[in-house]
Amino acid sequence: MAFTIAIDGPAAAGKGTLSKAVAAHFAYAHLDTGLLYRAVGRRMLDGVDPLEAATSLLAEDLDADDLRTPDVAQAASRVAVIPEVRAALVDFQRAFARRDGGAVLDGRDIGTVICPDAEAKLFVTASAEVRAERRFRELLDRGLETTFETVLADVRERDARDMDRVAAPLLPAEDAVQIDTSGMSIDDAVAAAIAAVTEKG
Ligand code: C5P
After folding, report:
1. Nearest to 127 by CA among 170, 86, 183, 88
2. Ligand 1 centroid vs 24 CA: distance in angstroms?
3. Binding positions for ATP (predicted)?
4. Is the Cβ–Cβ distance between 3 and 28 less than 8 Å?
5. pTM of the predicted model, to two decimals?
6. Reported ipTM
7. Angle CA(152)–CA(154)–CA(157) in degrees, nearest 5?
């Protein structure tokens, strides 16, 4: 089986960990589409027009170390509301999804807009508090100074922007399998995700 697997959900729900594990399990390629918006947001913070940044994005821009900071995450969610920016990133994502050998794409609109024909769709959620706690620990582990309250406010702000926007808002595809990871260990969540995909095969 060589599927396209769409994994969507809000910030810090565990999509990254799940997507990597699912991709490794099926030996598929993986694209974290949040990195595209982060790379555009990063360049906007440097003064580049977001649309200009989106149309000239290079694959190597996605490797930059500084894309995983809270400031860049906020900038990413601001450029992500611009329909022209989203449109400029569609072809790259669809080409990735169609590659031989199968692909896992994670983001906000993969199952709804980018790959509505994906063979397997997961929508990964967790409560805002659980997601903020996970992101808080991750940032502390990386040596960034912050507070739980700051991270929770950031998660809620990005949720609101992602869900309320007109262009490709965050919402589960009708045929998505929903996985709430709030009370789950990583291993259990990975097992649930792999089982959900296998069932489609
Ligand atoms: O997934 P990640 O937190 O890295 O995404 C950063 C931001 O990029 C999100 O808050 C969201 O606004 C935007 N995004 C999006 N569509 C995607 C992936 C990310 O709008 N497919």
Report:
1. 183
2. 22
3. 9-17
4. yes
5. 0.95
6. 0.99
7. 110
> By alpha-carbon position, which residue is closest to atom 13 of ligand 1?
77
Show the domain range for 134.
4-200
* Pairwise CA distance, residues 146 & 95, whole Å: 38
Average pLDDT score over residue span 64-75: 91
How many domains does the chain contain in total?
1
> Residue 1 — pLDDT band, cuts 50, 70, 90?
low
pLDDT tens-place string over residues 79-121: 999 999 999 999 999 999 999 899 999 999 999 999 999 999 9
Domain with residue 173: its CATH number is 3.40.50.300
- How many C-alpha atoms does 151 have within 13 Å on its Cβ side? 21
State phi, psi for 124 to the nearest 5 degrees: -100, 125
Which residue's C-alpha comes closest to atom 21 of ligand 1? 107
